[in-house]
Design goal:
The protein has helices at residues 19-26, 28-48, 68-85, 109-120, 130-135, 138-141, 168-175; strands at 4-16, 51-57, 60-65, 90-102, 105-107, 126-129, 144-151, 158-164, 189-194, 197-201, 207-211, 218-219, 230-235, 238-243, 249-253, 258-261, 265-268, 272-276, 288-293. It is of the alpha+beta class. The chain has two domains: 4-175, Nucleotide cyclase, GGDEF domain (Alpha-Beta Plaits, 2-Layer Sandwich), CATH 3.30.70.1230; 189-293, Tumour Suppressor Smad4. Strands 1, 2, 3, 4, 5, 6, 7 and 8 form an eight-stranded mixed sheet that branches. The longest helix has 21 residues, at 28-48. The N and C termini lie far apart (59 Å). Mean pLDDT is 86; it is low at 171-183.
């Protein structure tokens, strides 16, 4: 890697999942030995896939690749190796883009975003940004699926993130052909209304982001609403409400049932009233009215 330059790179972060619990369970000496061995194996796999280990700090490894395909293969190989051993689990994330390099070390925005990707990942999970997904070859893109549209700390724009399906069972589930007969999806459309705003969700317009931010599809002016509070997603003829806020989301169904979501999903049925961060009330001028369009 040149000492001072701007290169088109993919940066991969990987860290040990649950390392604190590992040290508590095994003791410092044994746990440290396992972590060192795990990171050493990860480093060798990165090198085998044409990557460069930038640094290892504590229980985390950072690497760069000239190819997003190589980063994906390295991440999958590491997860598969760990899965066979069954002793330590890792979570990973990667991001691609123009990268400033100084003294052989990448720095700047791409490093920050790649680090955010691994922070979003759960145990045994590989998360990548849309920029990284778009850098993959079409064949490698088949190993990933769209996961969510979320805010990233320190960034103004919302980010699309993807999940790598590295386990064979996951890949089969997404791309295989089910032998179980399924009912045809009935084409529907749904309306979201708040004040003078109207959003239609259907098979062409599948996602609506909701919150205080000007960047949201449906803007709600309320002190109890988060900047990016929730989203509604059209899935196979239904709409799923997903809360991603601090104060939670309240729903009142047509039957009068009152529900509360906090970092949870709910499939909306019939007519619903939705309130951000406070219970549904007739005095709330920022209610969202959800209904099926005939």
């Amino acid at each position: 890697m040149p000492d001072n330059d701007t290169l088109d790179l993919t940066l991969l972060f990987a860290d040990i999942a649950g390392s604190t619990a590992l040290y508590e369970r095994l003791g410092d000496a044994e746990a440290h030995s396992m972590v060192v061995m795990c990171l050493g194996d990860a480093g060798r796999i990165i090198n085998e896939n044409s990557g460069t280990v930038i640094e290892i700090i504590g229980d985390e490894i950072m690497a760069s690749f000239e190819s997003a395909d190589s980063a994906l293969e390295a991440a999958c190989d590491i997860q598969e190796r760990l899965n066979r051993k069954g002793t330590i689990a890792m979570r990973m994330g990667f991001h691609s883009g123009p990268t400033a390099v100084q003294g052989g070390r990448p720095f700047g925005d791409i490093v920050n975003v790649a680090s955010r990707m691994v922070n979003l990942a759960k145990k045994n999970q590989i998360i990548l940004s849309e920029d990284a997904y778009n850098k993959l070859s079409r064949y490698k893109q088949r190993k990933a699926r769209y996961l969510n549209h979320i805010p990233i700390k320190g960034k103004q724009d919302m980010f699309n993130i993807y999940e790598v399906l590295w386990e064979e069972s996951d890949h089969t589930e997404l791309f295989g052909h089910s032998v179980v007969p399924t009912e045809p999806v009935v084409e529907k459309a749904f309306s979201l209304k708040c004040c003078d705003q109207v959003i239609i969700l259907n098979s062409s317009q599948k996602l609506c982001t909701i919150g205080r931010s000007d960047q949201c599809s449906l803007r709600v002016v309320s002190e109890t609403a988060s900047r990016f509070h929730a989203q509604m997603e059209y899935r196979s003829g239904k709409v799923v409400l997903k809360d991603q806020s601090t104060n939670g989301t309240y729903v009142k169904t047509r039957a009068g049932e009152k529900l509360y979501l906090h970092h949870e999903e709910l499939t909306l049925v019939d007519d619903n009233q939705v309130s951000l961060g406070e219970p549904v009330s007739e005095n709330n001028g920022q209610l969202i009215y959800f209904s099926c369009v005939d």
